[in-house]
Amino acid sequence: MIQALGRFLKGSLWLLNKLEYGVLAFLFAVMVGLAFLQIVLRIFFSTGILWGDPLLRHLLLWVALLGATMATKEGKHINIDVITRVLSGKGKAVVHALTDLFSAAICIFLLEASVKFLRDEFQAGSLAFLTVPIWTICIIFPIAFGLIALRFAASGIRNGALAFKGRSR
Amino acid sequence: MIFLSGIVTIALALLGTPLFVIISASALLNFYLVDIDSSIVTIEMYRLANTPMLIAIPLFAFAGYVLAESQAPTRLVRVSKAFLGWLPGGLAVVALLACTLFTAFTGASGITIIALGGLLFPALISENYPEKFSLGLLTTSGSLGLLLPPSLPLILYGVVTKTSIDQLFIAGIVPGALLVLLLALFSVYKGIETEVPSSRVTWREMIDAIKAAKWELPLPAFVLGGIYTGYIAISEAAAITAFCVIVVEVGIYREVKLRDLPGIMHKSMVLIGGILIILGASLALTNYMIDAQVPMKVLNLLKVHITSKLVFLIMLNIFLLIVGCMIDIFSALVVVVPLISPIAQAYGIDPVHLGIIFLVNLGIGYATPPVGMNLFIASFRFERPVMMLYMASLPFLAILLFALMIITYVPGLSLFLVKMASP
Question: Of A156, B23, B39, B233, which sees the most CB atoms within 10 A?
Fold first, then answer.
């Protein structure tokens, strides 16, 4: 039972990573293609797709937030590493556990803030471009902050366990 | 309460908490204390999708990563060598120019050390340049291109302060050239002193080198020409660059495989996502600070102690050098600029000039011991102890600091071309 659950979790994590990777690459490719198309249209045909620029800017938002969730997975967020660079072993694990769990907590607050934002936008029903409401695009905020919070929490628990092991030895 | 939470936040930042978390935490807490709903933080972050120039940043960064994966650095070095190899210390000057151009186009000087360092370091050593000199040269010249278009940090500064990016691109030319010129003179002097061989220049090699790079060379000319004539916007220049780099490296040279592209997108967007989420968070925090008039309060405090513009500039230089070696240039711009720029304006400093001061300072900070980031990247890349890189970069830092003083205290150097361009 527990093993099955473990397999299921592992499988869904694998799927999630693949999905993130694929969606990011797809959106980025669309962004490059559309941005280039807009210039070709402007220079050679003095025209352009009216909703092209707002779409590009919202693609950027998705790419940025997906990039940030992946940066969390790989531990590549920009930080000040003056102190962690000189630490090693148990000390490093303790510090990482602390900062990871703090980050997870803050991201849960950001998740809550974005849910409230989404609710307000849903009620206001303002449009980003064409007939696309802002809230459908901004759904990436809670998704991203949820994923980031989960990843920080997982990493915090892992580092906590490492720190604890170090102590018992 | 505020004092205590401030200390806790700074402590957590120093312990390595991601900066976007630190900034978000401060924004959330401050809005909570003045009873504003936390959804304001998301509203501010959503402004990322309403800033037209911003799209230039991921597109240029991606193009830079593709170029770094291809053989473009080798061709770039070959062309520069064919034309400048005859100088005493020629290869060092070549290294300097190649690093400058590469940083201008990729924006992050760490990438330059990784992409060009592995190529140039063995070449310098095999031509009998002293090891210490070579290391220092490659570690510091990574930040030279930051001032020259289409540098990403310049674009980011323009976005954050709402300064004209076109003017910034013009203002960076002379100070950037000054930095390169001073280091080039030093390289020539070293070349004469150590009697390294300089290569012969032949028409044959010049033509061959240009032929080898014929698909890549028109791109910088076209992009820069387009930007300076105002024919294309910066975001358009970025789109053209990204598209053409894919066509050239994947389609024509075939040095980057089509199936490698998603991986490169992933790598570059991990970097850009990390930068843009900090920008989003700091949009929220800046909104609070402006509302609470924090810059004005800091200004009033400063005015008591600092009365002259000159003293302010000296303090600014010192402050930015410290910031530059502690945090990466993008986050420094996003976090520090909104605070400093209203204060600097009150002291009568032109926002365009301030941008140039910021970038020169932060660029030097990158290579400043004991914690400048490029020193660690170089130590990793060249497999040398960090201590050795500290010593190696010192003479170069001295020259760069000298140039920094000129650039800071002679505003005309940055501004005269801007004034000529806009009558």
Answer: B23
